[in-house]
Write a structure and sequence with these properties.
Layout (H helix, E strand, L loop, with lengths): L16 H24 L17 H95 L1 H5 L2 H6 L11 H12 L4 E2 L8 E2 L1 H11 L8 H5 L3 E3 L9 E6 L2 E10 L2 E7 L3 E6 L7 E4 L2
Parallel strand pairs: 1-2
Antiparallel strand pairs: 3-8, 4-5, 4-8, 5-6, 6-7
Helix pairs in contact: 2-5, 5-6
Length: 294
């Protein structure tokens, strides 16, 4: 519908030729009837005074009103369609907004859960580190106590070191002293640690890494590799061992495993990934030989 349809025209509506002819015909017929009646009547008859109303243009105005009503109805229908389209768009926008809100809520909950999991992991990691620190501090305390005790006894025992090596019966049970005590104390303090190839502590070791660290606790530097460690010092018999001696498996210059003799027919070593650092008797896995470096 034109946007100017509702503006009334300043021109007088034109009447169609057919409508004008119809009206003229009706008027002519009426006038003719009156004339015939007058001629046929008596001469002294009363003149006809009855007024006959002519058809008017009211019917035409009614048609115009109907057209206006139809136009108004069409405009109302168009407006209703526009309103319905607007409501449909609003409903679609609300549904989209609802979906986006649900998606944002789900994402926020996922991020919150991830943050809680990360906090829990960090807390567990911190607790594990603190427990490891406490365990290490406890080992250091034991090691310091053993070292202090052995150092205080070093003066009286040093003179007897030569005689103890001559007595094979006492070599399996004698208490370590001096540097040997520090080496033995360090090795035993690591029992229960993990075995890791290439490990040099403080909580994981391989066999030569543990031997090197134990000797370093006594102020003695050893090579890092097992066959180099077994090549040092003096070769000793397994029946003449003293605490602190280095045991080896394989040949002296080509050993593949080393450990520390701790006295009482036992040794401590970083055995393997399944056992870790353990203490065993000599007959559990008899070594090939031993060297004395002290």
């Amino acid at each position: 519908m034109s946007h100017t349809a509702h503006i009334p025209s300043h021109r007088k509506p034109r009447r169609s030729a057919s409508k004008l002819a119809l009206r003229a015909g009706v008027a002519g017929g009426v006038l003719g009837t009156i004339a015939v009646a007058g001629a046929a009547g008596p001469a002294n008859a009363e003149p006809v005074t009855e007024t006959i109303e002519m058809p008017t243009l009211g019917s035409l105005d009614g048609v115009t009103g109907i057209a206006s009503a139809v136009a108004a109805s069409a405009e109302a229908s168009q407006q209703e369609a526009l309103d319905q389209n607007l409501r449909s768009r609003e409903d679609a926008a609300l549904q989209t907004a609802s979906k986006e809100a649900k998606k944002a809520k789900a994402e926020a909950e996922r991020k919150a859960a991830a943050e809680r999991a990360e906090k829990a992991r960090l807390k567990a990691e911190q607790e594990r580190k603190e427990a490891a620190e406490r365990e290490r501090a406890s080992r250091d305390s034991v090691r310091t106590q053993l070292t202090s005790t052995s150092t205080s006894d070093d003066g009286g025992s040093s003179s007897s070191d030569g005689g103890s090596s001559a007595s094979q019966g006492d070599s399996q049970t004698q208490a370590p002293s001096g540097s040997a005590a520090a080496i033995v104390a360090f090795a035993r303090a690591q029992i229960g640690d993990a075995y890791v190839s290439g490990g040099t502590g403080p909580n994981s070791w391989d066999c030569s890494g543990l031997v090197q660290a134990a000797y370093k606790a006594a102020g003695i530097d050893l090579p890092r590799i097992s066959y180099e460690q077994s090549s040092m010092g003096t070769s000793v018999s397994l029946s003449d061992l003293q605490p602190g001696d280095v045991l080896y498996w394989g040949s002296r210059s080509g050993s593949y495993h080393v450990a520390i003799y701790v006295g009482g027919g036992k040794y401590v070593g970083a055995q393997n990934p399944s056992s870790g650092v353990v203490e065993h008797t000599m007959d559990w896995d008899t070594p090939s030989g031993a060297v004395r470096i002290l």
